[in-house]
Amino acid sequence: MNNDVKFSIDNRKTAIENAYELTADAKKKVDSLFKEIEAFGASCKDSIDFETKFATSPLNQKYTALFTEIAQTCKSVLMSIPDPVLPPEQTAGDVVADLAKTEAELAVDGTIQHFRGRAYRAAHDKARDIPVVGDAIDLKNKIDFFSRFKK
Fold first, then answer.
1. What's the pLDDT score for residue 91?
2. Rounded Cα–Cα distance for residues 23 and 17 (Å)
3. DSSP letter, residue 90
4. Calpha distance 147→150 (Å, rounded)
5. Per residue in 41-91, pLDDT tens?
6. How far is residue 138's CA from residue 38's CA, in Å, rounded to a whole number?
7. Is residue 108 domain-resident?
8. 78, 146 in Cβ contact below 8 A?
9. How far, in Å, CA of 51 to CA of 98, rounded?
């Protein structure tokens, strides 16, 4: 299987597994569906081919339905993340330095992603068009943004 296709499939699976505490039944459903998606992905030549075909595939509808079912039946991990508490020895300067380091790492990551080429950007754009995936990406961005303002 093409590495970019595998990356795209793994991200979809990780989105479910990291967002919810899966029950045994839900885990079986996820694993079963992703075996089908991986078989489908193995037949695609690259990530653009995969994203284009997957968007109109019945597997995409199954994925969306499963994500919706899990959202209704499993506990969200995102809602149970505790607010961070700064250790008393950490100063405002330490916080600013950590933030600057994080922003620099994000900038480097962004540059690396930029140079991965047009195929990655096209696949990412197509992934954002998938309702549940786009919503998950937007939710993560909002969480990241608002977590910067917590005391």
1. 65
2. 11
3. -
4. 5
5. 999 998 888 888 988 899 988 988 888 888 888 887 665 545 555 566 666
6. 25
7. no
8. no
9. 36
Q: Which residues contact 75 (CB under 8 A, 6 or more apart)?
A: 20, 21
- Lowest pLDDT segment from 3-17, 80-94, 102-116, 128-142: 80-94
Let me know how long the chain is.
151
For 73, the domain range is 3-81+116-147
Sequence-ordered strand ranges (E) for 2-151: 20-21, 75-76
Q: Which two tokens stand for residue 145?
A: 């943004």
Tally of domains in the chain: 1
- Contact present, 150 and 82 (Cβ < 8 Å): no
Both tokens assigned to 33: 């569906």
pTM of the model: 0.52
CB 10 within 8 A of CB 41: no
**Domain for residue 89, yes or no?**
no
